[in-house]
Amino acid sequence: MYFRIEKRKSTPLKIVLHITSFLLFLGNFNTIAQNSKKFENYTFDELSDKYYEYKFTDSIKAKKFANFYFNKAVKEKDTVKAIDGKYYLSEVYKNDSIYINYLDSLISKTKVNPNKMYPTYAYLEKGLFYFHKENKNLSLENWISALKEVEIHGNDSLEFIIKKNIAALNYDNKKFIRTKKLYLECLRYYEKNKLKIEPSNYFSLLINTSKVYLNLENIDSAKIFNEKANKYAKKTNENIFIGYCFYGRGTINFREQNYEGTIENLKKSIPYIVEDENYRILFKVYNLIAKSHTKLNNKNEALKYYFLIDSIYNKTKIPSNKVKNSYNYLSNHYKNKQDLKNQLKYINKYLKVDSILNIRSKNLSKTFTEEYDRPKLIAEKQKIISELNNEVSFYKKSRIYIAIVLILSFILFLYQFRKRKKQEQKFDNLTIKLKNKKVVENSVNSNTNTQKTLPENIITELLAKLDSFQQQPENFTNNKLTLSILAKELETNSNYLSKVINQKKGCNFSTYLRKLRIDYALDLLEKDTTIRKFSIDAIAKEVGFKNAETFSKAFFKETELNPSFYIKQLKKKK
After folding, report:
1. Which residue from 240, 291, 301 is spatially nearest to 262, judged by alpha carbons?
2. How many C-beta atoms surround the C-beta of residue 81 within 10 A?
3. Which distant-in-sequence residues (6+ apart) come within 8 Å of 458 by Cβ?
4. Residue 322 CB partners (closer than 8 Å, separation 6+)
5. Which three-class secondary structure state does DSSP give residue 271?
6. pLDDT band at 277 (very low <50, low <70, confident <90, very high)
């Protein structure tokens, strides 16, 4: 589940933007002078803390500090803070239109004379508001509008915040490849511009990239990015960051079927997520804890967390698929207890949440009717009863299966042991050869007796360009590179380039490209211990192959070893 860790409260998680001095005033604020002596000495952080202190305990005082915050922002000509102030007012008065109308007015006024900051930032904030309200269609509309403004007027910082947010919607739509591409693009920007980044933006990118890799079944990479996030959290000494790292570990534990670890880490994350008022993630936490207890056959504990989800939804009214899951579980629970009244209660709650999500999202694959199709449920119930009746027979059969598996495992162990010994010998032979010769030669012998079909000056020029091309790995690690694309980049034609590669490199273009990439892979694995921790698929994409299979075949063709074995032997060697 994607999550963002930004909110209005002036904690270190608040996005900080380096903005221009531009400010647009809206409305008549003659009341500022009357209150100035009461709040002018407060900082924005102090006013924000006061607002959140009274938000749930004293609405009168909360309104007072929300107004103080907004008026101070207007007096100091700080539009970003003024937007935050309007958000506080909309919260405390429970009236979303206070905030939305202010942003709409800001957009309307600034579109007349736009700049790098506005109306882009107003669109960004409006999209965030709808995102937290689970209205993804309106989020996307506003972020696309923001991106269009950035393309016209510029602002790198805002551009990558917007892209990060759009990646969140791609994640929710299960477009994980596209999400990963956007996150990695944003990470490269932030790591290149370290002085400009705000800690919460960088941290959220690390932790969310981990989540994307987890959904792509790349657990190794997920762990690497979660650990990077954890180190960054400790470096910045941000407790809430550390809390989200516990959440990340818990989700990884669940994917690894380590349910005790899931419960332990997720419970550690709860206080931080509650403090951050991130109810979307809190639903995920309680849902995973409940599922883990179910896997461990602790049904009463699971039930407790599903009731917690119901309680939070009653308070926040934030719809979520995890809320639906809890109502599905609870309705089945009461059905099994033959409590028709409570079964109907949670079916109705499920229907209500499902209808909201169906209106807001085009990507739900199932309707409530499909989930609660009566014949399907009756068949499922009969299946469960049948399985329970045959439980004893199942355990007897399982013992036989276990014995067979153990015997086969022993045979497989002997086979693998002998195979590994042969591979180790090949590795030793290869390392000796690689000390004196790389897999990829820069060129074949210039005296090779080949038919000269091109003028010498063209051959010389293309060889120089190819040498330059080979020096930069990013040139040949592009997995979409073709002969025609490279020819265009080298300002020649495919026929000339193909002939030069065949005559001077001693192979066709496909083989030439493969050798370059494998040579680069060997060099990386030899010098960079970090890349050895990546999955084979991740290494493949790093050096220009589309997937692990094509990389492994190419690697074996050049080295007669599988890459996974080669990496293990390198680690032993070091």
Report:
1. 291
2. 20
3. 492, 496, 500
4. 1, 283, 284, 286, 287, 309
5. helix
6. confident
**CATH topology (fold) of 456-573:** Arc Repressor Mutant, subunit A (1.10.10)
Type of residue numbered 466: L
Name every residue whose Cβ is closer than 8 Å to that of residue 495 and which is 6 or more positions away in sequence: none
CA distance 282 to 309: 8
Q: Which residues of 307-340 are buried (b: 16+ CB within 10 A; e: fewer)?
A: ebbbebbeeeebbbbbbbbbbbbbbbbbbeeeee
pTM, rounded to two decimals: 0.51
Q: Where are the domains of the chain?
A: 456-573
> From the centroid of its chain, how far is CA 5?
13
The lowest-confidence range among 35-39, 118-122, 123-127 is 35-39
| 200, 222 contact by CB (below 8 A) | no
pLDDT at residue 361, as a whole number: 58
Instruction: Give the model's confidence band at 212: pLDDT under 50 very low, under 70 low, under 90 confident, else very high.
Output: very high
Average pLDDT in the chain? 81
Q: 48 and 10 in contact (C-beta within 8 Å)?
A: yes
Q: Which long-range contacts (CB under 8 A, 24 or more apart) does 430-435 make?
A: 430/559, 430/560, 430/561, 431/573, 434/522
Taking the CA atoms of the chain, what radius of gyration do you get in angstroms? 30
The pLDDT confidence band at residue 442, using thresholds 50, 70 and 90, is very low
Pull the structure tokens for residue 532: 């050895």
Per-residue CA distances from 419 to 226, 350, 422 (Å): 35, 55, 5
At 202 the three-state DSSP class reads helix
Weakest mean pLDDT among 368-377, 379-388, 422-431, 534-543:
368-377
Question: What is the DSSP secondary structure assignment for residue 196, as one 8-state letter?
Answer: T
Q: How many CB atoms lie within 10 A of CB 381?
A: 13
* pLDDT tens for each residue of 348-404: 999 998 888 877 655 433 322 343 233 334 444 455 456 555 655 666 666 777 878
Amino acid, res. 284: K
Angle between helices 120-132 and 136-153 (to 10 degrees): 160
* φ, ψ of residue 319 in degrees (nearest 5): -75, 150
Least confident of 64-78, 187-201, 239-253, 286-300: 187-201
